[in-house]
Amino acid sequence: MSKRTTELVKKDNLLSENKDIDVKEDHFKELMSIYEAAMDKMTMYLNEIKRDVKKFYDYDVIDHISSRLKSPESIITKMEKKGYELNYKELIENIHDVAGVRVVCPLKDDIYKMKEIISNIDEIKVLEEVDYVSKPKKSGYRSYHMICSVPVEYKDNLLYVNVEVQIRTMAMDFWATLEHRMKYKSSVGYSEECSKEFIKFAKTITSLDNKIEKLYEKQHGKNNIVVLKR
Ligand code: 0O2
């Protein structure tokens, strides 16, 4: 049977209704399982890339991959903060990081190799890219963000589901993980002083990434990884 290709939001689709979100109902759980399938599919593509580059170039372009499904509370908080109505249509159309995959690379240059490789995966559509590596956020945050639309089989349909991919170096990951923990999870709040300190740490991290990359190239030369279209 041939599968119909459709977007996640479509008039005749169960998940497109202007229905209010109730995180306890099956409808919500079903939607989350679709996002989870998209997240797993993206992780699978990335693991294949990691394995192939290692096999053919004897190089780890990816140190590790992690993934997470945004919690129901976090989805609702983000929607309220951004002023969206709490219905499924608004959620699907506007919250692009329900499914998130993080790719952590050794060197800064690997980030740009990875984003090219991901753009070359035939089955995936890249909807949006933001380069916070060359243009960091005010906080000092650096990462390359991609919103990718990934095909998932769902009840005889091929749905395209958004997954946010964050690509960063190990040093950027170290900074972002601690900053995120202190900012979001801290019960004592995030002071002006803390924020200024993290901006300074971000500069140190940038300088470290640049120095390590230069040293690596001096020792090994530039990597000329070419990954054919998948
Ligand atoms: P969590 O807990 O990681 O899920 P936008 O549409 O651009 O206005 P959005 O989605 O906020 O809305 O985009 P943005 O700014 O690209 O941020 C997306 C994610 O990037 C965040 O998700 C964080 O994971 C990460 N991020 C962005 N800015 C910072 C920062 O200053 N510090 C750290 N540590 N991470 C950051 P969430 O939903 O905020 O959180």
* Tally of helical runs: 6
Q: What is the CA-CA span between the terminal residues?
A: 24 Å
Secondary-structure content class: alpha/beta
Sequence stretches where pLDDT stays below 50 over 5 or more residues: none
Estimated helix fraction:
40-55%
Main sheet summary: 6 strands, mixed
Overall mean pLDDT stands at: 90
Labels describing this entry:
230 residues; alpha/beta; Beta Polymerase, domain 2; six-stranded mixed beta sheet; 6 helices; flat; binds ligand 0O2
Folded structure, characterized:
- The protein is an alpha/beta fold and 230 residues long.
- The chain has one domain (3-220): Beta Polymerase, domain 2 (2-Layer Sandwich).
- Helices cover 46% and strands 21% of the residues.
- It contains six helices and six strands; from the N terminus they run βαβααβαβββαα.
- The protein has helices at 26-57, 72-81, 88-94, 108-119, 170-185, 192-220, and strands at residues 4-7, 64-69, 99-105, 125-131, 144-154, 157-169.
- Strands 1, 2, 3, 4, 5 and 6 form a six-stranded mixed β-sheet that branches.
- A hairpin with a 2-residue loop joins strand 5 and strand 6.
- Helix 5 runs antiparallel to helix 6 (192-220).
- The chain is flat and about 60 Å long.
- Bound molecules: ligand 0O2.
- Residues 70, 74, 78, 97, 130, 137, 139, 141, 145, 176, 179-180 line the site of ligand 0O2.
